[in-house]
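A common beginner's mistake is to predict each chain separately and then try to dock the pieces by hand. The better habit, illustrated here, is to supply every component at once so that their relative placement is modeled jointly.
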Amino acid sequence: MICFALFMSAGRDQKTIMGNKTLSHEKPTEEIRELAALFSLGALTQHEARSFEAHILEGCRVCEKEYNKFKHITAEIGFTVNETAAPDYIREMILARIEHVAPEKIPEQTPESEPKDEEASAKTILSSAPRPVLTQPSSRRLNIFPWILAVILAAAAALIFYAYYSEQVANDRLESELDTIRSEKQNLELSLEDQKSWEGDLQQIISTVSKPETRILHLAGYDKVPTASGAILWDVQENKCLIFGYMPPVPSGKAYQLWYLTSKEQIPSGMLRPNPDGRIYRWFPIPESITSMTMVISLEPEGGSKSPSLPWYAIGRKD
Amino acid sequence: MDQESQTVPKIEYDNAALAALIKKTGEGDPTAFADLYDSTGNLIFGLVLRILTDQTLAEEVLLDVYTHIRKESASYNPENFMPLEWIITIARTRAVMRLDSNKEGRKRTLPEAGETDPKTTVAPALQDFARSSIESLTHSQKEILDWIFYTGLSCSEVAANSGKPLGAVKTYTRLGMSKLYDLFCPLYERGTGSENDNGE
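With all components supplied together, the output reads:
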């Protein structure tokens, strides 16, 4: 191919033939002789041979002349073989066969259709001559190539699909793991928040307990809920108390209510709602008039009651 | 130059007679076709046998060649090719096409030439001249021309099969063909028909 490209660019000029500008050579070069010799022997590739033939048909007289020189030589090489007598039956077969093969008629040429110039004569010379052997690509290669291509494409498609499928499966698994991790993280954050809250509560408890004026009341489970436990820290100076401990979960629509019981009255102090763990923690104000009392926790409707319902759930006493 | 000392022989091969047989074949004359086969069959069978190296294949191709000649005879133009050149070119093309259709693909070996047999029927002087011309080439030129002519491979395939560099294959081809042209040129200028040789 490189050789042919060099040939096409070597020693040529532009020549006008039949009004069309065509590229033709001015003089024969070694490249031209080489191509003409190889063309007449049929030793060019099919593409090179067709290009050379087209070049002659375009009107390059130099290349046509070189080809005409060598086309005879190719046949002369065939004279050198030893003549060999073919079997007699071949002669009989050939003569029998040609009875069914008529010579192909050539169209009669009218004066209008006869070649009028040199380019037309080149066409006549090439078309009427036996064509030199054009090197054909291997037919087996031609037949196999599409199959090889199809197999490669199918394998590539299968690999791409497998890679995509594997990627999807891996993505789904990673998404699932990520969801689990996110959920665990959320739980940990809630737990951490809860722990921080509890830590704050403990700081409050420690701070309150360390005051000398704080009174500590034991809050014990009573009657139906002996498992309830806790403590009441009564800050006498500031007249408030902190209740903390654990209570059983409350039924729906119910809540715990704290009462101050004195010898004269039952004072509702506020509602207590344990967290999901059952932990309670809340500050309550204490009326200044109270110096000793009993604190009880009862189970009441969620809005609270005016008087404590029985049974009491926990009790603490301060004399 | 060799051709200066080379004597161009009197060619006894009768171009005009063969051309007339082809012309009559093109007109549908079966006797002319039989005469054409009888005159050229041995040479053409020797050629296709050398290329194909198989008797059965060569017989099949011989049938194919003469069927083709019968079909194409009406379009034969003696101004382009001498009759034997035309027939030899057709025969080589059909034989190489058969090689191309073989399962072996493009991997080929150079067929053996065998002992030269002086027995000829169609054009002994021309055949002798062609043989001596080929023998006057260098060994490399002759070898490469044999490779290309008898295997039908392209020059790059010849390079691959023969182990010669591609550039050398092209150069030997050009030099060999140019030398053969120089040797045959006087023959073409004088013509090879008996009417020319004999001045008839």
